[in-house]
Structure formats: structure tokens, C-alpha cells
Amino acid sequence: MTDPRSTLAILDPATGAEEVVLQTDRLIEAPNWTPDGAALIVNGDGLIWRVPLAEPRLVPVDTAFADRCNNDHGLSPDGRTLVISHHTGGKSCIYTLPVEGGTPVRVTANMPSWWHGWSPDGARLAYTAVRDEEFGIWTCPVSGGDETRVISGPHHYDGPDYTPDGDWIWFNSTRGGTMDLWRVRPDGSDAEQMTHDGSDNWFPHPSPAGGEILYLAYEGGTEGHPRDREVELRMLDPRTGGTRTILSFFGGQGSINVPCWHPDGRRFAFVRYGRP
């Protein structure tokens, strides 16, 4: 018997206990928690799905014309608004809509733009973008309007996510030579490399409880962030620089691309994939 294509699970990093929520032969990705902790949001087949934890199943969210949604989506701090990244004209563009579904409203005037973080005060979105042929991290008001460059350059930048106090934006970049975790102030100051371990490190997610940073580690030398690889989920303590591996599994692209912590910061959701 072959493994299910996708297994949606919850992990307690303190104990290593894993709870399987849902298994499906559909390719699903990038779980987010609703602020009430009652459901997870994932994408699959270009659509957005809600998974109620009381009765786990894939319930489609009405996104109207947006039927090419990628794995860069999430929820506002108050849980009322869903942000999605939908491919239009061959490029990713950011939209918002009510969490219960509805017609998406365009946020980013420029493309491509891939959403990754929401400021704790609910006012701004952080995203990866390509502008003037360079990757970078940008922010803009939730309602759209002028975007602000945080950091960019002739390297790859991805995965921006705010700390719960809003003081830092964490991201991953090759600006130091290899793919490592970095953090920067929202105004673009104090950029600091935070990992130096020889792995290719992606998608840092600060715990809502403060303290450690969850991230995905690939074997050093991996090109991009592919799916279906042997990878590790690790935790980084930014105060000491210490890291620890909490799970080795078959995953990668789609496992934790976007904020995936439970609101209490004690557990997180992720997706593992079936081995061929």
C-alpha cells in the first residue's frame, strides 16, 4: 500500500508528539490556524480549503475567480480576513477576502508578489516580490497603496514573517552566500544573519508565544525549496543561536511555507508527503 499523497498533522515541539489530522490523495499545502484554534486553512488544486478540527475534512472556501491560488496564504490577526496569492496573467498577486469566502480584492498593484506575513497590529502585509529584476522583502497597507521596500538585492529573499511584538521581520536569503535565516527591522535596518550551519534554511516562523523560531532545513546545496525531499523541522533560539531538530520527515515545498503556529504557540501544523 502506498502512502497518502498528503498528511496534515499537528506537532508539539516540546514533546515531539504528532497528531494526524487528515490524510488525502490530494496534494495540499501550507496550513494556517484560525485564531480560535478550531480549524486549519490549506490550499490544493488552486483552491483554498478549510479543515474543521472537530470533524476533519476539506471544505472549499469560495474565492470566486481566484482558482489558481498558491501556498502563500493566511489569516488576519483578528481572523476576519483571508489573504491569498493568486496567479493572474502568469504572475502571483496578493488579494484579500472575508474568511468565510467572497470576491477577492486586489492588494498589490505590482507583480509578482507572494504573501508571507501579517503585522501583529493587523495594519500591514509582508511579502516576497521581484522589483526591477531583484528579489526582496516588501510591505504595504492591508488596503493596498504604496509599497515599502524593506530589503532587496541580487540574491534570493523569501518567507518574511513578523515577530509577535512587530519588532522584527524574519526571512530567508542567500545574501550571505548560502540559504540562511535572517532578521531585519521593519524599516530595513539592522539586517542580521541568524543561521550558519551549512544547511539550506527556509521559512522562519516566530512562535506567537515569543522565543524560538520554527524553520525548515534542507540538505546543504539544495536548489530552491523542492517538494518530496528528506528535510527537517528545526527550532532556533535567537537569544543563544542554538538550534535543535524536532522532526525529520519527507516533505519540503508546501510543508510550512506560511505561518503555521497555533495561536497559543505550543504546537504547529505541517504537511508531510507520501514517499513514491
From TrEMBL:
Entries under InterPro entries matching the protein: 6-blade_b-propeller_TolB-like, WD40
Protein name (record): Periplasmic component of the Tol biopolymer transport system
Residues forming coiled coils: none
The organism of origin for this protein: Wenxinia marina DSM 24838
Entry similarity comment: Belongs to the TolB family.
Source organism, top-level taxon: Bacteria
One matching Pfam family: PD40
